[in-house]
Amino acid sequence: MSSNIFLLVLFDGLLAAIAAIGFAVISNPSRKAVFVSAFLAAVGHALRFFLIKSGLEISLATFVAASCIGLMSIFFAKMIHCPAEVFSFPSLLPMIPGLFAYRTILGLIRFMQNDDPVKSQEFLQNIFHNGFTTMFILLALVIGVSLPVLLFPKYSFKVTRKY
After folding, report:
1. pLDDT of residue 160
2. Do residues 43 and 69 make contact, with C-beta atoms less than 8 angstroms apart?
3. Could you tell me if residue 81 is left (phi over 0), alpha (psi between -120 and 50 degrees) or otherwise beta?
4. pLDDT score for 2
5. CA 163 – CA 148 distance, rounded (Å)
6. What does the H/E/C string look like for the chain?
7. Which residues, including other chains, have CB under 8 Å from residue 115's CB and lie 6 or more apart?
8. What is the Cα–Cα distance from 160 to 65, expressed in whole angstroms?
9. Short-list 46, 148, 139, 47, CA closest to 88
10. What is the residue extent of each domain of the chain?
11. Per-residue confidence (pLDDT) for residue 159, from 0 to 100
């Protein structure tokens, strides 16, 4: 059982790395930055997948994974002399909650087309559940990747002038 979950985590990380490469190439960064984006996406998404499979709620698992990406991006930014945002943002994009957002919009459409009050209540519950899940995952991504930069400003920003 544990080798099965290990393979699933590796496969999840590989797919996230492929997606991050596609998102990173759009902004035309250096080759090193593309590989760092792929590595960060693989580690972050695999960590989130593992935490979810371990029983953690998706928004909290996303926050932990985004914080991990934020911390590692500060380290790699110093190492390859590139802003952390160049590879942290493409690394986060595979974690965007597209399925929950899709289900929210689909529920809205079904709610508006429906006349049955019982079904309308069910659709409304789904709209709120999926909508709030989408919102909390997005907040976890934003706060998680920003928190390391705010907690470690000495390592995040380099002063180029001496006064």
Report:
1. 47
2. yes
3. left
4. 72
5. 27
6. CHHHHHHHHHHHHHHHHHHHHHHHHCCCCCHHHHHHHHHHHHHHHHHHHHHHHCCCCHHHHHHHHHHHHHHHHHHHHHHHCCCCHHHHHHHHHHHCCHHHHHHHHHHHHHHHHCCCHHHHHHHHHHHHHHHHHHHHHHHHHHHHHHHHHHHCHHHHCCCCCCC
7. none
8. 31
9. 148
10. 2-95+143-156
11. 46
Alpha-carbon gap, residue 139 to 96, rounded angstroms: 11
CA distance 70 to 62: 12
Question: In 10 A of CB 137, how many CB atoms?
Answer: 23
* Mean pLDDT for back-to-back runs of 10 residues, the chain (163 residues): 84 94 90 93 96 95 96 90 88 94 96 91 95 97 92 67 47
CA distance 73 to 96: 18
CA distance 33 to 12: 21
Using CA atoms, how far apart are residues 37 and 43, in angstroms rounded to an integer?
A: 10
